[in-house]
Amino acid sequence: MAKSVSQDAISTILANPSPDSSSDIPEIIVQVLDLKLTGNRYTFNASDGKMKLRAIFPSNMSSEIITGSVQNKGLVRILDYTLNDIPNKSEKYLIVTKCEVVSPALETEIKAEVETEEHDTVLKKPKLEYEARYEAKADVSGIILKPKQEIVSKSAAQIVHEQRANMAPSSRMAMTRRVHPLVSLNPYQGNWMIKVRLTSKGNMRTYKNARGEGCVFNVELTDEDGTQIQATMFNEAARKFYEKFQLGKVYYISRGTLKVANKQFKTVQNDYEMALNENSVVEEASNEETFIPETKFNFVPIDQLGPYVNGRELVDIIGVIQSVNPVSNIKRRIDNENIPKRDLIVADETKKTVVVSLWNELANNVGQELFDNADKSPIVAIKSLKVGDFQGVSLSTLGKSSVMINPDIPEAKKLRSWYDSEGKGSSMASIGLGLSPSSKTGARSMYTDRVSLTHITSNPSLGDEKPAFFSIKAFVSLIRPEQAMWYRACKTCNKKVTEAVGSGYWCEGCQKNDEECNLRYIMVSKISDTRGEAWVSAFNEEAEKIVGCSADELDKLKSEQGDIDGYQQKLKEATWVPHLFKVSVTQNEYNNEKRQRITVKAVAPINFAEESRFLLEEIKKMRNPQ
Fold this sequence. Notes:
Helix content: 10-25%
Domain Replication protein A OB: 311-406
Number of domains: 4
Subcellular location: Nucleus
CATH class of the largest domain: Mainly Beta
Distance between the termini: 53 Å
Low-confidence stretches: 114-161, 170-176, 434-444
Mean pLDDT: 80
Radius of gyration: 30 Å
Domain Replication factor A C-terminal: 469-615
Protein name: Replication protein A subunit
Number of helices: 16
Structural class: alpha+beta
Main location: nucleus
Number of strands: 29
């Protein structure tokens, strides 16, 4: 194959900015120039030797760029694309949604010598050829779609118009605009339409802030390839679409917007999240062939669950059922409603076990099936589990969780083979035994992943993808007395409350007034060790261990007794006391700048006997590095 670009490739793209389907696209081969990583996508200049156009690769091409399949000065064939305007600029941006590699890097950039006076003619030629070819296709379509006698009296345009008028709205949408896969969407695109199944629907929530009251709800959408995205609707859009969106149904959606997903709150594996407003279009795909999205798992081995404890990120696991408990009912504190719960013990190839709690319908339906077949040790794959710290590490299902029994996937077959040949007779240990944040003192987990503060502060990328967890031995060196060290919290749910009109305190979470509230710490302090120092955040339980009293007691000392000196003395007494800390490291964005956030997850006093054993082990490792 000749290593060359297609003649007038950029002109062809500019003449047809949004092709109806990939079959309508002529062969377009361009050279990749100035390839670079911008944010989380790779951008480049697409060149045909005469013209250049700024372009962006789809996220699924990142692996090919990293491995070197796609190279700077190499050639790619564009199979599908969209051309968008850059906001606030007169330029256009080529969004490549599908392409393939033609050639690795060439020695030089391809350039064509073109006379200036011929340039306008060259630009127009692809457009005329393309339009003529498209019109010819439209005429042929008219002959095929209608009986022979009607061709004489009706044009192709009339025939297509009549067909669209007789279609269901969703079918008209499918015909007038091609469906984009979720993986191809990005904030730079203008017009797009997706075909997705609603795989999770949240409850309608109300909120109150300085701008007033409102409502919001979220959904999770999955396309035919199994790619997921989270969509959020506020106020008018929430009221418009809440009843329309039904779990399990398939929809055509357009006129939404995308933005970079907030890693702290996202619930699906996607770089972007979607917002739908009252002008967005949502049509159910009812009278046509639908699809069942492939369930995509991202399994976490049981022995690697520790870093996810009490984090926002959900996990998927696969394991062999060891035991299943009968269903029980737990009374919810807020409304005294009985919620069904069933516990399972699951093991995997790491020879670790973990307790999984199934709630609500999963406890009764899938849970009962597992209970009846527990003696056969079935394989379970569970998606979207919350990781808690009960018994060290525990897993719980949510409303969006799904459970598959003996799924037909390679991981299940591999696990079954291991269990039947080896695992059944192996000794299993609970993952919680080695990771308990602590029995009562927290000391057990403080001797794993021990680092110095400089290990964290000198590595600004720590916690970028997901929280990183470490143990530290340090002193509290400073607690600023002038900081707002606590907040008013609801006695039921511990969420922040506001002063109600008249008297009492209003809790948005519980939707009720209370005459009293609690004070809970939200404290920032500086900690120091032998190599460095860092600012850390500590919440109520951890701050109480550092300060030595509750927030209510400290507030009473400061305000009711009017003893400012006593208040400051109490904080001073808390400094230069050694502690063992378990901390998490995450990345927060402030004014478009990423900053490290270190949060105290557990605090324990020094156990000198345990500390001596730890130091002896460290000395032994230094003497015998192998």
